[in-house]
Every structure is written in C-alpha cells, then in structure tokens.
Amino acid sequence: GQNIDQPTEMTATEGAIVQINCTYQTSGFNGLFWYQQHAGEAPTFLSYNVLDGLEEKGRFSSFLSRSKGYSYLLLKELQMKDSASYLCAVRPDRGSTLGRLYFGRGTQLTVWP
Amino acid sequence: GAGVSQSPSNKVTEKGKDVELRCDPISGHTALYWYRQSLGQGLEFLIYFQGNSAPDKSGLPSDRFSAERTGGSVSTLTIQRTQQEDSAVYLCASSLASPSETQYFGPGTRLLVL
After folding, report:
1. Is B41 on the interface with A (CB under 8 A)?
2. At CB < 8 Å, which residues of chain A contact B?
3. How far apart are the CA of B71 and the nearest CA of chain A, in angstroms?
4. Residue A102: its pLDDT value, please?
C-alpha cells in the first residue's frame, strides 16, 4: 500500500520559520506536491518536486530526497494568514494510476501573534 | 479566469436517498478527479477521468458510487442509497491534458447524511 506521514499539528509565532516534514512509502514515485487548505476551502497548490533538491517560491520552499522518501515544506516570515492545513501528496508512476494522488492527513499549522 | 466549481456547496440528505454532486472543471482541462475528505482523514481518491472515459475508478468505495462525464467537461458523482458513513466533503479537481500536470481543486460539496 501507499503510506504518507506528516505531523498532525504544529504551532509557531508570527515572523518565525517553520518546517513541515513529510515521509512517504509508495509503490512508485513521479512527483510530490504540497497544498495549502484553509478551513472550509479548496486545497490550493503550493509546490511540486520531482527531482532531489530545494525549490524556492517566495516565502515558501520545498525540499525532496527521493532516496530517503522525505520532503519538507519551509515557511519563512510567518503571517497569521498562514494558519491552515498543509497537505503532502505523492503521485505514483504506474500505468493508469498516473492521475491519482495519495495524500497525507495534513498538518494543521497555527500561527500565533 | 474561473476555477473549478462544484454544486451544491452543501447537501443534507436522509439515509437511503440518492444524491448527485456536480463538478465544472477549469475550461480546457481534460483530466478530472474526484476525491473524498472525511473528518480527520486525508483526501481519498475516488475516480479519474481523461476526457469522457475513466481509466481509473478503483477508488470508488462501493457499487453505490458512480460517476460520469459528458462532453469532456462537466462531471456528476452519484451516490445511491446514501449511508451515514458517506458523510464527507467531496472534492473535484482538474488538470491540463496530461495527468502529470498539477491538479487544481474546487471548493467541494459538504454532504451530511442523517
């Protein structure tokens, strides 16, 4: 089966840096996605990694190590609006399941003033 | 431009009734996906369409669940004889022609089965 693990909850203060980890064991690998989901809203795309290394996009960065089955999302200069659930998702690479994403349960981040 | 839209946004139904959930993908997106998000759980894949055909429907939890897509655009997810365990948020996503593209999600339909 497919297994995606991430912490359930994290807290941080405004202006700080937080790192949300994700580990995965899947039957194949063709990319890892991070989504942000505010309560009651649609998940919105944050980042995509398919090769090892760091992808930076403004205050958000995402890292991937395929050999370790590990990724993290780094959020800098935290703002109150960053309080949300962060979803890690893996896309397998196998025939007709190419379209499917496997999601972790999400990490609920609370940013305090 | 318009994103993925879903209707209704909320649906309350009685156990045993049938429900239909609708998804309008982003214009030009040929791939469409349905997921389910239960309280405290991760998003669970249900079915994937490429055009009007469904190469992967292995995530549908039972034969009470079915989905169709017509004209390569709008999709309908139907749940027959609803059960309380069907209560969840049903999310639709779409992507460009290749399934390797990023999936963009709609706001979901919150289904409550009493």
Report:
1. yes
2. 4, 30-31, 33, 35, 41-45, 48, 87, 89, 91, 96-106
3. 20
4. 92
Tokens standing for A58?
Answer: 């403004």
Q: pLDDT band at B97, cuts 50/70/90? A: confident
Task: Give the residue-averaged pLDDT of B72-92.
Answer: 96
Outline where DSSP puts E strands in chain B. 5-7, 10-13, 19-24, 31-37, 43-50, 53-56, 65-69, 75-79, 88-95, 104-105, 109-113
Q: Chain A within 8 Å of B71 (Cβ-Cβ)?
A: no
Nearest-5° angle of CA B103, CA A47, CA B110? 45
* Interface contact flag, A99 B48, Cβ < 8 Å: yes
Q: Could you report the average pLDDT of every consecutive run of 10 residues in chain A (113 residues)?
A: 92 97 91 94 93 94 96 97 97 73 95 95
What is the structure's pLDDT at A2?
A: 85
